[in-house]
Amino acid sequence: MIKRFIPENQWWLWLLVLIFTYTSGFAQTHPVVVQQTSQMQLIGTSVAYLKDTSAKLSLHDVLKPEYQQRFQNQGKVVFNSDATNAAFWFKFVVKNETNEDLWLKIGDNFASWYLDFYTPVKGDSLGKHTRPRLLGALRPQQNREFPSHFYCVRLAKEDDRQTKVFYLRAKGNFPKVYTFQVGTTYALTKHLNVYEYIVSGFVALILSMLVYNAFIWYSTRDKIYLYYILALLGILMNITFDSGYPLIHHPLLWKYFFWWHGTGFLFICLFAVHYLELAKNAPKVYYFIVLLMFFVIGVFPVLGLLTNNAPGLMIPYQIIVLLFYSSLLFTAFFLWYKGLRNARFYVWGWSFVIVGVSMFIATINGVLPFSLFTHQAMYFGFGAEALVFALALGDRLNTLKLEKEVAQAKNLQLVQEQNKVLGEKVEEKTKELRSAYEDLKQNNEELVQTQHSISLQRDKLEMQNKALFRYQNRINQSIEAANLIQSAILPATNSIEGFFAEHFVVYKPKDIVSGDFYWIHSLDQHKLMLIVADCTGHGVPGAFMTLIGHILLDRIVRIHHVDDPSEVLTRLNDEIYRVLRQEETGNNNGMDATALVIEKREAGDFQIDFSGAKSRMLYVDASDQALKELKGTRKFIGGFQMPDRGFEKKVIYLTPDSILYMGSDGLVDQNDIDRKKIGTTRLKRLLISNARLPLAQQKQAIVDTLAQHMEGTEQRDDILWMGIKL
Asked: Which residues lie in coiled coils (predicted)?
């Protein structure tokens, strides 16, 4: 067994060498006498080490005097070294006085790739050593002598009280941290159980946070919880591996460290980017973090595969990770200072991590005294971080709930204001109908009753903010009443026939009431004004806007006698801005509109004055039967716009039997089951193909085409389309 260390026929020479070796060895290494049986004993200050830069020295070489003289005491409780390809030899001089088996705890999986432990032959006076006990993360795990994540070797049995010199060769490409401790089987078991409890507690905490947030993500489908789950997985895999407790033990994890380790940081990065909303709140930091992640998950894995130089890459890798952590921490401080409340949790969480990592680094470098807490501070730091981030997500959920309640309150206020406008309009229209149509007194009483019901409902809405949806049925009744009112203000069929002998109107609200309306007023015997408008929204909000638009048009045209279409649109824009107090409230409601003044001239033809607000008019000129188009100004009525831009007026002349088409965009924007719209091009083809038919048949063709197109899907907007033959 020992012939590989001592050549034959040279016993006298090696005897002198061993005498010198033991003399020099004991001069450099203080013997460790172990007497206590219940506690592990730190022996780091009594351990001598030799750095083998070639990584090729054998025990035969190390025992030579020139190498024995190079051993030096480390002088610290904990031995640590940067990542290197070199091997380290350690020398221990230990005497067992416990009357129990004596064990040495060497180190964990992370740094211990290859461990060769040499034990002197019992009872031999020539310093012979047994064959090395081969341990390490990249060696078969059945070689372990003690069931633990730490590598431990038995130094002496209970009856062995001889002072012995042990040698340990450690090789690995990662940074090395060794806390050499000796003790009895009982002391070692008790010591390692505490470590196991800490790691198990950490793993249990992370897994419980993971399961808890998985339930929340399943319930809310909020992506931030999915990113946090991935971040927890990254922390669980990286921290347990880096601290020597890998959840999965396979040599490939060490060989391809950069390929999988960076993925954990990627998960942590995804959570940080989305939680702090860096793309919006700090775009420069966002791009910087993306660049760092490119190096971590792209550059380092490729370099590690091509160069096979883990030690040379480890320091740049650690610098990149440090930049990543510090950038996120300082950015969180900055965003917290700027008023982002959620950032404070991120600052607290990473502060715990920084404190834990700093305590661990200070402990292995001898700045802080070695203890169970300081040596395992990383687990406490990352565990506290996981708890703080869980609190952060809970606070975020409460914040979103509060914002939703504020939005509901604003919507309720808007409904209340619109109800007030509706009530005033109902009252005004009721008075007009009473004075103009004595024969409709019965209908007027019903309208007054409807007005009273709406008032009662409005009062209840003001008092019951949070019970808004419980009164859906009454609101529907109110909408039905509003439909009656809206129908009453639209021009009656007989009034339209008084102007045009042949015409059609396709009027299809998306809901019960519509945001589209049309308005007609005779300016004189041969001249009339026609307005077709598409208000913001549909349903009740759109209907409110139609009432406002109708009132304002009555005021502008009937009272102030404005008969220029472009001026009518300009005044309508100003009045909506004023009536809705858009400068104060910030709302941007309004409408698209087409304004026409149609005048029959003495020559027998017609003059059409056109002005449009984000609208167009199609017409078929009877002289050539061609479909033509007039486009309005690309400006919306209402809201915040350039004040110096007016509405352009265009004038055309048409012969009798020419046809005018106009309406809202609800017709061309209607989609089919494949989400394909009717579109302007298809509408034009439909109009020109039916232009010679009576308008009643043209209307039916449009209605049939629309019904066929939207079969299997729902109507997406209010639809209004008119055709007029001059």
From this structure: 397-450
The DSSP result for 395-425, as a single string, is: HHHHHHHHHHHHHHHHHHHHHHHHHHHHHHH
Measure Cα distances from 317 to 258, 260, 312 in Å.
Answer: 9, 13, 9
CA–chain centroid gap for 183, Å, is 51
Query: How far apart are the C-alpha atoms of 102 and 121, rounded to whole Å?
Result: 16
H or E segment and range at residue 294 = helix 283-294
Give dist(CA 638, CA 586) in Å, integer: 11
Nearest to 62 by CA among 76, 73, 80, 49: 49
Q: Which residues contact 695 (CB under 8 A, 6 or more apart)?
A: 502, 503, 504, 659, 723, 725
pLDDT for residue 470: 62
Minimum mean pLDDT range among 53-57, 249-253, 603-607: 249-253
Tokens for 702?
A: 């449009």
In whole angstroms, give the CA distance from residue 699 to residue 191.
90
Same domain, 531 and 652: yes
Domain assignment of residue 523, yes or no: yes
- Ranges of H-type helices in 183-282: 185-220, 223-242, 251-255, 257-275, 278-281
CATH of the domain at 26: 2.60.40.2380
- Per residue in 325-365, pLDDT tens? 888 888 888 888 888 887 888 888 878 888 887 877 776 66
Q: What is the pLDDT at residue 10?
A: 40
* First-to-last C-alpha distance (Å) of the chain: 118
Tokens 């190079």 correspond to 70
The top-scoring range by mean pLDDT among 137-151, 201-215, 505-519 is 505-519
Question: For the residues of 252-276, what is the DSSP string, one character each?
Answer: HHHHTHHHHHHHHHHHHHHHHHHHT
> Starting from the edge strand earliest in sequence, which strands make up the sheet with 606-613, in order?
516-524, 527-535, 591-600, 606-613, 649-654
Q: What is the mean pLDDT of the chain?
A: 83
Using pLDDT thresholds of 50, 70 and 90, give the confidence band for residue 571: very high
Within 64-142, residue ranges assigned H as helices are 65-68
How deeply is 266 buried, as exposed, middle or buried, from its count of CB atoms within 10 A (0-12, 13-18, 19+)? middle
Burial code (b: 16+ CB inside 10 Å, e: under 16) for 398-434 equals eeeeeeeeeeeeeebeebeebbebbeebbeebbeebb
Is the residue at 269 inside a domain?
yes
Q: Looking at residue 667, what is its pLDDT?
A: 93
259 and 384 co-located in one domain = yes
Assess if residue 395 is contained within a domain.
yes
Whether residues 665 and 710 share a domain: the answer is yes
Residue count (the chain): 726
| Whether this model's pTM surpasses 0.90 | no
d(C-alpha 145, C-alpha 632), whole Å: 89
441: number of Cβ within 10 Å = 10
In 308-436, which residue ranges form alpha helices assigned H by DSSP?
310-337, 343-364, 372-375, 377-436
Is the residue at 411 inside a domain? Answer: no
5's tokens: 């260390």
Which helix H or strand E contains 517, and what residues bound it? Answer: strand 516-524
Indicate whether 149 and 284 sit together in one domain: no
**Predicted pLDDT of residue 126:** 57
How many angstroms separate the most distant Cα atoms in the chain? 141
